[in-house]
Design brief:
about 15% helix
Length: about 280
């Protein structure tokens, strides 16, 4: 598993002979790269990055100082078997962040493409992050969490294991997420609660006015109509049909934890078939 001759390795870096370093990579001072690591084209590792076994990085990733990738899971069930961390292309992972590999043998934690992960947080075992997500500083993501593309996770957010966060959802700072969050909406409060459609995120993503209006109608039916969950989803498909509202419906129908409610006193978790939406 070669080190490409065009890659730069600082004199104090320690790279295992069974690691693979792609063309035009830069490995900074005091980095440690273990065996069975594969790094693609043009990756930048600042000083003091530690990449542990069974980690794969795609192309043009930037990894900042003090970050550790591929750590053993923080999970008592971990028995030391081979598992993986797989990171795609064009990601930025800032200082002092840790990401674990999977718990079960041959399982994986997967990070997609174009994500911006800020400082001093953790993504746990068996998580799946899609593409173009922002994870702000000091966020903690527990095991088996799935975050869809273009979501925004603000600073200090804590996400409970097995939770799902939908596309273009935005979670406000210092929020505790312990349920599934449907796509395209804005969430906040200490106990996560739905607030509105994520208008700023949708506009930045280039959504058309009629697409946003359909999502506003979907939000009203889910959270302000007094309908039970199944009736609300049926009404969304009838009254506000679009590709995006269908994604909202599909996401909710696939929820196993239940989706968060809308409550002034702290969010309630409302399973799929329960009613009503508002107190």
């Amino acid at each position: 598993m070669p080190i490409d001759p065009s890659a730069y390795l600082a004199p104090t870096a320690r790279v295992h002979p069974y690691a693979s370093i792609g063309p035009h990579c830069h490995v900074g001072e005091f980095c440690v790269i273990e065996s069975d690591v594969e790094i693609g084209v043009g990756c930048m590792l600042e000083p003091y990055v530690y990449i542990k076994r069974f980690t794969t990085l795609g192309d043009y990733n930037e990894i900042s100082s003090g970050t550790v990738l591929g750590t053993n899971p923080l999970d008592k069930a971990f028995q030391g078997g081979r598992s993986y961390l797989r990171i795609g292309n064009n990601n930025r992972i800032r200082e002092h962040f840790t990401i674990s590999r999977g718990t079960q043998p041959e399982s994986e934690t997967r990070i997609g493409n174009g994500n911006y992960i800020m400082t001093s947080g953790h993504i746990a075992h068996n998580c799946t992050l899609w593409n173009d997500i922002v994870v702000a500083s000091c966020a903690l993501v527990a095991g088996h969490v799935e975050i869809e593309s273009q979501a925004f996770i603000s600073g200090g957010v804590v996400i409970h294991q097995h939770s799902r966060i939908g596309r273009l959802a935005m979670v406000g700072g210092n929020t505790r997420v312990n349920s599934d969050l449907p796509p395209y909406f804005l969430y906040s409060d200490f106990n996560v609660a739905a607030k509105s459609v994520n208008l700023v995120g949708l506009r930045r993503a280039g959504f058309l006015r009629e697409e946003i209006q359909a999502l506003k109608a979907a939000f009203r039916l889910l959270y302000k109509s007094g309908l039970n969950r199944r009736e609300a989803l049926q009404r969304i498909l009838l009254e506000a049909p679009s590709d995006h509202t269908r994604h909202v419906v599909d996401f909710i129908e696939q929820s196993k934890r239940g989706i968060c409610g809308m409550s002034r006193g702290g969010a309630e978790v409302i399973p799929f078939a329960e009613q009503p939406v508002d107190e």
